[in-house]
Write a structure and sequence with these properties.
Length: 639
């Protein structure tokens, strides 16, 4: 073990008393608060005055600053959560993918393999998720937008990280720039000298989109060159033209062009309403393409006047959207998103010429929403939310770069997550719904294929599906407006209810949503709500409601305290080889034989710096504790 690893491992002993406490200890005495603020400022988490005032801003900084203790992270060598986008350099040597798993991965596009993993500081609720990444056309720069967290009223904060990329694809951290909104869209100009940043504004009831907009930075220095915050909606797409004009599309319904001087030159309404979702500029003609959310529509505009020149031929698409548009170097337009083939099962890419005429047949990609597409030689590279990545070859065959390593959590809301009464046994399918079922036995630390002789001999552990009867709950499966009878069950804007279970004795019920797990009493009044690891696609209960067990779209099963929603335990199973790891929020863990390859330790260095990442053996003597993990859901452990 290296000297630095020994130092960090020894230092971790002092963290053991804090590993279930807030990330940063509270100070209240005179002088201590100022020292705490100074430390938070050093970590990039405090921008206020250094004094002894304790207020909501300090409390928020304590809550959202990345914790300094070792944090256990699952590493599958591929993305383990939704891929949010793909950016390639001008020659398509390298591609960069941004993900909710708090990483950016740089790929050799020729070989279809990861050559560099860029990890973000993690912590807080959604802290560390990466919504956008961009490679400069010359491949020398990588930009990534890290979500730092949200303030008490839903106001987001994020940090733009800039890296220098070597000819071999290695990324070296250069600087970080802080913003008070989510970095959601990124684009370099053709020379790689300017970087455009598009923002999403605050979330939550009563929040205003004001404060979103576009900023342009000088790549080499990080200096702000221009900014326009006169937007009344989130910016979902930015792109530069050949002459360094900048284009932006916003949910306020407008398309904007900024000239080479970055002054606003033109602003027009998008031809098809309030939801333009992406923008791309043809390198051959300068024409601008717009894709839309919730519509299978593509507009082609003049690059100078923004006058509509054509509407792409979208006939024959049975359902879905063409929200993502990209021009190729040859002047072909690619459009995709969630639009599917005639059978409705596979997302497709459709190609057009510069007049919007369809080229060839639709290319089937994957049974998931496409989040990125790019021309690479004669093939088309793509990424999906699954998460998956691959290349469509000229003959239409698909060459996968990454098959999803995650358990398929689709179709599990009704009967895909079975739990024993004591909460120690869960059954679920590795595939969609109940396909390829397995049983995890926490008490004995085993994962077994159901149907094996060993499983058939196990008759002592009865398991049950979520209880869906008992209350008249409407809209619990895919709606923003679920109701208990006539009474609405209040969710955040854009938050969808995805799953439900009724508590024993009809004492209440639990909803799993896109962002949270929410508990209600028998009259529909909220009792608690907690931020979930990811979309909660199934919920169940055990021990007469003392435990809530949930399946999440990041491939994990998690156990929560039924009294307050506090997380107790998480389980991750790697699909390819069934290796697994179970761990507690404190970092204590146990694994299957060989499962330690899934373990990485993140040591945060604040939100503005790259974290240290260490292998499992760095803290094994301190945190590997199967006996403790096996008791994680027992009543004594919860108290």
């Amino acid at each position: 073990m290296s000297r630095v690893v020994l130092h960090l491992a020894a230092a971790a002993v002092s963290f053991l008393a804090l590993d279930v406490a807030p990330a940063h200890a509270a100070s209240t005495s005179t002088g201590d608060v100022a020292a705490e603020k100074r430390h938070l400022a050093d970590l990039g988490c405090w921008r206020g005055p250094i004094d002894d005032t304790v207020d909501d801003h300090l409390l928020e900084a304590r809550r959202t600053c990345p914790p300094e203790r070792p944090i256990l992270r699952v590493e599958t060598e591929h993305h383990a959560d939704r891929i949010n986008g793909l950016s390639v350099d001008g020659l398509c040597r390298f591609g960069a993918t941004a993900s909710d798993d708090r990483t950016v991965r740089i790929w050799s596009m020729r070989e279809g393999r990861v050559v560099e993993t860029v990890r973000m500081a993690v912590g807080g609720e959604s802290g560390g998720k990466v919504f956008s990444a961009a490679l400069s056309p010359d491949g020398r720069w990588l930009a990534a937008g890290r979500l730092d967290g949200y303030d008490a009223v839903g106001g987001p904060r994020s940090t733009l990280h800039l890296y220098a990329v070597s000819p071999e694809g290695a990324a070296t951290f250069v600087r970080a720039v802080e913003f008070d909104n989510r970095v959601f869209a990124l684009a370099f100009d053709p020379a790689g000298e300017r970087l455009a940043v598009g923002f999403k504004g605050p979330m939550g009831e009563g929040s205003s989109p004001k404060g979103a907009g576009v900023v342009v930075l000088e790549t080499a220095s990080g200096r702000e060159l221009a900014a326009d915050h006169d937007y009344m909606g989130d910016v979902y797409g930015v792109a530069f033209g050949r002459d360094r004009s900048l284009y932006a599309v916003s949910r306020d319904g407008f398309v904007r062009r900024y000239g080479p001087s970055l002054a606003l030159a033109r602003k027009v309404r998008a031809p098809h309403g309030q939801n333009p979702d992406s923008v791309s500029v043809s390198p051959t003609s300068g024409r601008v393409a717009i894709g839309y959310d919730q519509k299978a529509t593509v507009s082609i505009l003049s690059g100078r006047s923004l006058k509509t020149l054509a509407e792409a031929n979208v006939r024959g698409l049975p359902r879905g959207t063409l929200s993502l548009v990209r021009w190729t170097a040859k002047g072909e337009l690619l459009a995709t998103g969630s639009a599917t083939s005639k059978d409705g099962a596979t997302t497709v890419i459709r190609r057009f010429d510069e007049a919007g005429r369809r080229i060839g047949r639709d290319l089937p990609v994957a049974p998931a929403r496409v989040s990125g597409v790019a021309q690479c030689g004669d093939g088309l590279a793509f990424t999906t939310w699954a998460p998956s990545m691959g290349m469509v070859e000229p003959n239409g065959t698909m060459r996968p770069f990454q098959a999803s390593p995650l358990v398929d959590m689709g179709g599990k809301a009704r009967d895909g997550l079975l739990v024993s009464e004591d909460g120690r046994v869960v059954e679920f399918g590795l595939g969609r719904g109940r396909a390829t079922p397995v049983r995890f036995d926490l008490k004995n630390g085993r994962l077994i294929d159901i149907g094996s002789e060993e499983t058939l001999a196990m008759v002592s552990d009865d398991v049950h599906a979520p209880e869906l009867a008992g209350f008249a709950i409407r809209g619990w499966n895919g709606s923003n407006t679920p109701q208990m009878g006539p009474q609405p069950l209040k969710l955040l804007p854009l938050e969808l209810s995805l799953s439900m279970t009724v508590l024993p004795n009809r004492s209440g019920f639990v909803l799993g949503t896109t962002w949270r797990i929410r508990a209600f009493d028998d009259e529909g009044r909220p009792t608690w709500a907690v931020q979930a690891a990811n979309r909660t696609v199934a919920v169940n209960t055990a021990r007469d409601g003392e435990l809530v067990v949930a399946a999440h779209s990041d491939g994990t099963i998690r156990w929560y305290d039924g009294a307050d929603g506090r997380e107790l335990l998480a389980l991750f199973v790697s699909m390819p080889d069934r290796a697994w790891i179970a761990w507690m929020p404190s970092g204590h863990y146990m694994t299957s034989p060989g499962g330690e390859r899934l373990v990485r330790w993140t040591i945060n260095r604040g939100s503005k710096s790259a974290p240290d990442v260490l292998p499992a053996d760095a803290f094994r003597p301190i945190y590997e504790n199967p006996a403790l993990v096996k008791q994680a859901v027992d009543p004594a452990a919860r108290s």
